[in-house]
Amino acid sequence: MVSSEDYERAEQFLPQNIKHNVLNDDITVHWINDTDQFWYRRERHNGKEFIQVDPDTNTSSYAFDHERLANALSSEMNAAQDKWDLPFDKIEYANNKTAIQFRIQETTYECNLSTYDCRPISVTEEPPGISPDGQWIAFVEDHDLYVRDTSNHEVIQLTSNGEKQYPYATSYPSPVDMVEEGKQDLDQSVEVSWSPDSTQLATFRLDRRSANQLALIQSSPDDQLRPRHFLYDYPLPGEKGLPVAEPIVFDIERRTKVELDIDPIPLLYFGDGPQFNWYGDSDCLHYVRRSRGFDTATFFKIDSRTGESRTVIEDESDTLVDPRMSHARVIDTSDEIIWSSEKSGWHHLYLIDAQSGENKQAITTGEWVVRDIKHVDEDTRQIYFTASGREPDCDPYLRHLYRVNFDGSDLTLLTPEPADHTITVSPSGEYIIDTYSRVDSPPVTVLRHSTTGDEICELESANIDQLRDTGWVSPKSFEVTAADDETDLYGVMWRPSNFDPSNDYPVIEHIYTGPHDQHVPKKFEAYRSGAQSIAELGFIVVMVDGRGTGRRSKAFRDYSYKNLSRTGVEDHKAALQQLAEEYSYIDCSQVGIYGHSAGGYDSARALLQHPDFYDVAVSSSGNHDHRLDKASWNEMWMGYPVEEHYREQSNITIADQLEGELLLVHGELDQNVHPAATLRFANALMDANKDFDMLIIPNEHHWLGEHPYFIRSRWDYFVKHLHNTQPPTEYDLSTY
What we know:
8-stranded mixed beta sheet, 5-stranded antiparallel beta sheet
């Protein structure tokens, strides 16, 4: 029997509710006027306070007198203000730190820190398209590009032949924005990249004339009875009709237009156009081009005056060159490039001669993964970067910070604690803000010296007293072996707060196997996963990163190349079976699975291919046929052109294999995975005369994680089919 009290406890553990029971687990620092001084917001049980820190003197204090500011605001706003619950979350220092500015609703205030005189002020926001020196503002009008001189307001028209489907300096719009504004045609922000000396701008002309489109139907708009529809560009895998960007540079001084000597760039997803970056001398740009199918990444250097381009780096793979694993950092002072690549089989850094393209030096090597460059000191020729998998006897996904010289020497670990480290480097590079935690260890935020990693002081340690008071049981990390009986896999399980190891618990897997990353949480934030609320209903919830996911070796991730089905996610089945052997309270005779987006595909696929193991699936926003999903993601992992394996791995193709209980869920306005993916799957299930359940949610886009009816429906489905009992009738999630 699952009662309303169980649902109330589960609701208490929903992410948006339980997060209020932990203080200072997510510290964000704000640097003050490009110095190494910073402020941050400290949470209190009764509100918040603002703290400023000077690393040079290792001192901290209140950023302002909270009581005096509260009194001043009370007088100015004619409403009492609580000094520990001031009506703003951000501040900005002004007038050489003699005042602070903050925004309350639509009004910006400035407060003098000597007199505590607080008054509304007029603030002019920096417009998009402004040049670095502030002299020029680029803008688009009637699909053509203009610049305005801010000193004399002179307007220069740079183009005159723009069209609605062939405009300058604007990308194709997001359907989310269309829905929010309630109209098809939007005013798009200008997209330009100014040269450092403000004399040139790089942009593109977007050719949408042959682009294929999809339509979304909004059945229930708030302001009218008649449904609305929205058309938007959405390239599918293998299609030829794509929006393409034609790159251009305009020289404002010479009033010239230069078309760049590179092929038009296909844009495979709505959003920003191609990103061109300038060299410091303003004479050249660089751009990394990805081929269709993503098997090649090419670094181009382009002369902005002539448009001539040349290839400096070309990275190729017989599978794919992962865009998240091939980055460039140009070193202007030495005419070098720091390039990251998986060509060794692991993601590492290389020093490239920017003229010849010669690989001068492998900066990092070994069977571990560089995660992110945090800071480059060109004077000392040192790189600060995070990496995982290098430290022995440690979860290979936990990130640590390292420093290394450009020549690969003196590789130094700066954050030794066996935890996942989130790093921010100060503007000068002298200091590090490090927040480290594990799923079972609350966050600690410290200030460190960058040269040694030595701790200067502890800024905050998360307070979890209220979380403990709920009876919360920390998630448990585990290690198992993949279905190949060789590869180590890592995961996390969530148990209910009233957990009793002598009981038997049905197990539910939370699955997401997107190859672009690893997905099992490694930080303490796992406490606010939606998995915990599901566990509260009398389940063990498990998540594991199987072969084919990211942040391990290239071979580990390439297991999913042209194989997104993972032959029925066999690693996940193997993981659950091993856990059941180790923990007697896990009942593998009753197994559920749920996932969203790619996880929606995974959860349905598991039920279709392993009905002997999985009994119940809740599949939300699933991309059930990769031919119907965005080209940008699917061509990366399934390859280009579209071949027979696309059809073979479609859930629609094997819909007639369904056994067990399946709930399909989709938002009618899903801009990312079109609702047709679920509806075509449903059509195939009907053709096969299969029983299933389906929920289409009006007015919702791709993300459904906070929709109360969806949350309750998923709870009900697992309770009904795994506990074999009726859930509380129409439980109202707004009660907690």
